[in-house]
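Duplicate of earlier report; Polar amino acid transport system permease protein input re-posted below.
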Amino acid sequence: MSLNVLFLQLLEGMVTSVSIFVLTLVFSLPLGLVISFGRMSKNIIVRTISKAYISVMRGTPLMLQLLMVYFGPHFIFNINISSNYRFYAVIIGFVLNYAAYFAEIYRSGIESMPKGQYEAAKVLGYGKFSTFFRIIFPQVIKIILPPITNEVITLVKDTSLAFVIAVSEMFATAKALASAQASVMPYIAAAIFYYVFNLLVAKIMEIIEKKMNYYK
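Output:
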């Protein structure tokens, strides 16, 4: 089988992998910011719940979390689940997992900001909301871009874990083709896809860093 034909057969799996990647970032990045606020809250209950959430999400395997999200509604609440729920379960599992990691990255960046900037903004008449999103947050983004980039690159590879609940992303498709054809070529093609995808993501993040004058 030619490489072109193989890539065409893997195309559907590629689309699914990219969809998981994009949707995870779209929802987990803002959710992570909200959780980071909870983690830094002065309210001990909110802070404890946020801290426990982050600890559980970071301390257990993503594969196990995907299984819990998919099978949990049936075994815990006796809710009937359909095959259509698989993709939604993957997105929910990935978003909940990555939001915890992004929350800690946000927190480290926010807490690194000098308190004098908050005081100066208050003197100039800025409210808390304006101070954070117009003064503090742009600086935080510059600081946290490298660790965010690392997590984003990891996400590209983690999309392969969707196979655990039978979602036909790139790895699952390659595995099925390899078994049917008794060939290693589907795995090689999948490896090329992940590698090129990671290179593209890394390049985009590098451009963003330069746009924000990170290296100056």
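Helices lie at 3-39, 44-59, 62-77, 85-111, 115-123, 128-158, 170-181, 185-211.

Merging into the original ticket.
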